[in-house]
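Problem: given the chain below (1093 residues), write out its structure.
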Amino acid sequence: MTTTIVAWGFTGPALLTIGRAADELDREHDIRLIRVPLDEDLPPEADVVWVQGAMNPMLGERILAAVGGRPLFSSPPVAQSLQIATAHGTGMGRPPRNPSPEARIALALRLVTPGRLVHAGRLSALVAGHTDVDPGPMPDDIPRGIFDTGRGPEHPVGTCGIIGTGLNVAAGDADYLRTIARVLNSLDVATCTWLGSPEDMPGDMKNRVDVWLNLTGFTACGNHGAPATDKGTALAEETDAQLLTPVPLQRGTLSDWRADPGPVGLWPAAVSMNIAVPELEGATVPWVFMGRDADTNHLTPDDTAVARLAERVRRTIDLRRARPADRKVSVTIFGYDGDGTVGTAAQLDVFASLHALLRRLKEEGYTVEVPDTVEELTDILVGDGAGGARSQASELARWRATDYARVLGEHAARIDGPWGRLPGTVDTDGRDLIIRGARFGNVIVGVQPQFGDVSDPAELLMANDSTPSHSFAAYYLWLEHVFGHDVMLHFGTHGALEFMPGRQTGLAAADWPVLLTGSVPHHYLYVMANPGEGTIAKRRSAASLITYLTPPLADAGLYGALDELAELLDAHLSSGRGAGPVPREIIDAALRADFTVEQAQDPAELRRELERVRRSPIALGLHTVGRPMEQRQTARSLELAATYLADTGEAERTAILADLEEKLQSNTELDALVRALAGGYTPPVVGGDPARRPDALPTGRNLHAIDPVSVPSASAIARGRNTAEQLIAAHVDAHGSFPESVAIVLWGIDNIKTGGEGIAQAFALLGVEPVAGPRGRVDTFRILSPEDLGRPRVDVVCTLSGVCRDVLPQPVRLLDEAVRAVAALDEPDELNPLAAHTRAHAEEMDTTAVEAATRIFSAAAGSYGTGVNKLVQAGDWDGGEDLAEMYLTRMGHAWGTGADGADAGAVLRKVLGTVDATFQNVDSAETSIAGIDHYFEFLGGVTGAITQLRGDAPASFVSQSWAADINVGTLRDAMQLESRTRLLNPKWVEGQLAHGYAGVAQVRTRLENTFGMQATTGTVDGWVFDRAAENLLLDEDVRGRMQRANPAAVNSMTNRLLEAADRGLWDADPDTLDRLEDIADQLDGVLEGIEEV
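Solution.
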């Protein structure tokens, strides 16, 4: 009797295997094996059903209904498949020592090869009752070990270890291995191709490997169900060989990818499997290099990608073989907007760190000329411009525009559209393009050009075909084609290269980051506390990241009027007169310290606020690469770390803190840079702040994110629930009612560091609980009943950064599914405002409930940022309506299940018009809310947009979540604390001024961001600007020291305060404005070379 087996949903090597096994089954065993795609109906003649493919609950129900009572076998590692098969009564766990037929079929489907499928077919016939003959032991026909790819080069320059999978070879799909080996051989690179886990490779063979090329699409060791990242890391460390893991397309064909890949790039499952998990073992270069042929289904390499990949391997080997004296190194620092910010990076003294690196390279034998001092290096790199001191980046070289155009080729026309015909208008004299930086022997320190001319950022950011400027493209192409660098290093967090337009992940040849960097080995010095944006740099610019330490923390302390007030309060309260009337001297002192009249009459409130200021942790100064903390500088970080260890035993807590203290006082960052520049391997490390993630130390390792399918974690869910309840309580306290709708800002950086606390907060506000499966994959959720929730649900509008959108696609989709599930509930309007708003908006907009339920928004695919910060920094706005329009236009794209950046501007405007409050986490004491422009760009941007849509400002809250004890307060309160502890605090200012040019730039940046928050939200009190003018600019000693170090930054600060007054953002004293005008005039003369510094 013929047995009909339907293989439902098989793809890839399994599909090829089915074709090879079907003939033998039909010919020798009277078994008919047919393949049916999952989107087609199950044929009625099926006796047995095999299922392979990713599933969701809806599809699982459809499969179970179609299969009925017939035997069903489902292939892991898909969690839903396991649930379906278990529900149907088939065993899907690890097979027993003497497996039953059902377990053997399951194992055969898990490791699909022709021999195993024939075995599974015969077992299936036995299960269906069409035979009583047990086929016996299952054959093991998966090839392992050395795979012969043909004869290599006669005189190889080095060896590439290629890691392949025996499943493809068993399926008759191994030509791609031979093709890639042949391309490498043509570059005189010997290859050693190994099928299976390379840890089993003989030692003499393993030790010859210079570069590992992992072509499995997963980790180097282990398998899709059980990645062995620790073994992959050990392998790369043992051989000190970089691990390159390009991406094979698992879905769709190579021709489809070439023709219309879309701006999103890889789908979420591929991001997790092919990129995020391999990064845990230090993998890099996630370029798409092959896919399946549309006709044959065989894996087919992309010739361009393989050539670039092979060149990367060859250049890495050349780097390892070259003498240090012969290596040519490019180091890129960042220019930003030019207002005294050349060479700035997050929490890093760039010039002191550069000087330390140049000195170390000299010691290592590099041909490098090292300036005597940091100040001399700064003067060389930040030139005199029009004659004034340190007014702009120095000129390194000029490149004839016609020569540049020949190198760029057909892509020059792409730039001509947005920027005007070659050579454009940025950094050019009309004939040549100017390359900025300086040469120090075989080391060039170049200054990355601005993204473009920010005089009209709106036009640039709105353009669908935006590109880098000609000067930006010329800089990178000059490094490659004129200077001829052997290795590239980006220095500090962060530049603009990785945010250039193109696919989000799985970049191809025409995407700008790939086009500009080519095949040169690339490393990126990155702050340990920013795994979100670091991951974008790693994936989009094919960089290996090298972490650097954050600055030491200290208590902010008290100063000036705050200190005077504290002394008076202590005397008053210790005198026993605390219950009586508040003395006039305390009220006057409180007012001098810029407290309100109401606060001044409440000594207990004043005491609490002063203590909060005094104990707030602040970063002291900037980090210098290679310099560890002194023991006295570790105390505040250790104290903060201890707050996260309250639930651990004393012995364990003591051991963790002792280990943290030791790591803070040691530093191997320069060793790591030297090893990377010589072509060595940089082991992986999780990102985070020292106090919260001690395992992020030591620095000098390859920063990575987390597997997105594990987000949010159990601890994040608990903390997220706590924060959500605090937020609701804060709104009730301030406004007397529950918030119906909250706009929450979600970033990649904090969600990666915290395991998804922000995402968990959104779930909690909705009244939904994420649920993790047995392997830790968070792939479903539970909707809490109104009774269990104990309060109304909150309509949550999620506004995502581009990093969050790109790095955490699975939790974003799950959150979208939760939103839509809650929107569809039949609950009273007062308990479910999301459902109520969805129905009302659908009717008002004459659209579907599906569209009206959209609540997850971000920029378009391949675009990053709201553009609000660019407008503010350029001064190119007339009022809040301009900033709001920029925000709404940029962020009006829907994300989630199936959305992928669809235009949803109308829905965004509608839902924001009903928002009661805005909210964001502040997760870092080192950075804080005015430390970077992204807080006013995102939180300020959405708050300002809502203000314009509603006609009045929403409530705005932030969570100070950098400590174990979460505290939710108003944005205004946060800005007061921020200003008192940092911008206006002599302790913080002096810590910055100790770093000269770079430190003054940081002071300028914090004032700029304070201005930005006022421009977007109006939550900065006037006294903040009063004291900033008084303490920083009108104080001649402080201004003089800043002016000598960085006159352009001081000029920018002065003009920004004048702009604040001119726009009505600051009600300034006329005398103060007159004095600021005089300072601005004098600084203009300095920068023009007319006056002395």
